[in-house]
Amino acid sequence: MQVVFHLGAPCTDGDLLVKSLLKNRAGLAEGGVIIPPPGRYRPVIRDTSRALKGRPANPDVQEALLDAIVDEAQINRLVLSDPRFICINRLVIQGAQIWPMIGRQTTNLRALFPEAQVEFFIGMRDPATLIPALFAASRFSDFEEFIENMQPHAVAWSEMLRRLRTEQPDAPVTVWCNEDTPLLWGQIMREMADVPYESELTGADDLVQTIMEKSGFRRMQQYLSENATTSEMQRRRIVGAFLDRYAIDGEIEEELDLPGWTDDLITEMSQAYEDDMAEVARIPGVTFLTP
Length: 291
Fold this sequence. Notes:
Order of helices and strands: EHHEHHEEEHEHHHEHHHHHE
Strand content: 5-15%
CATH topology: Rossmann fold
Helix content: 40-55%
Number of domains: 1
């Protein structure tokens, strides 16, 4: 059995990815690809993982866990998604690290299905916008208090991914930039479900629809229906062209006004993030999806 853990990151797709996949639940299940609703597994996985504390689940525990999560008898690939698989939002960034506990927590997740082939999927986000988003989703009212133990200018996704690969060297990792997801959405869905481009998946344009004018989205849908695409790249170029023309102002670029964060600091952080992506692309065992 293959098990996919989509770890988020928090404040990226807002559960829209798993919702898009759920639109294809019945069709995918015919091929043994199971997409259970998050409400079926998030509490039970959290509770079981805490009880096991990293100890491999025995066959009885695994059977009980699967009975709680899925109804299907044939399970070739199980896709599970939770932006809090690793930790709560407040603990995502500590000091200069993203997910300091990534090794321990992924080991705990793998212990649930110790004989499964495990893959991890992660959407990355520019720390210059991720940290403010984490703050907005928190219970904190003081931004400076929220970032007190952070070194925002020093965090790097590549550093976290190298730790993950060290701890889980036999588990493939697939990553992408949250900023690129409108163009990658369909591909991410297919990668998670492990189906080819020719497989029709409902919801491949769900994210684009949220950031595009309604009239533009209708025109794009009509164009795509009348002009069959033969590759991911060809479809991506078409979607990009319509986004260039019909993207909703304010849905793509974010305005940041935070105490102590100057324009220079934000620019420096964003540039460091872009530079870090070159490092991410060189990490063995990591597949980096790009437009």
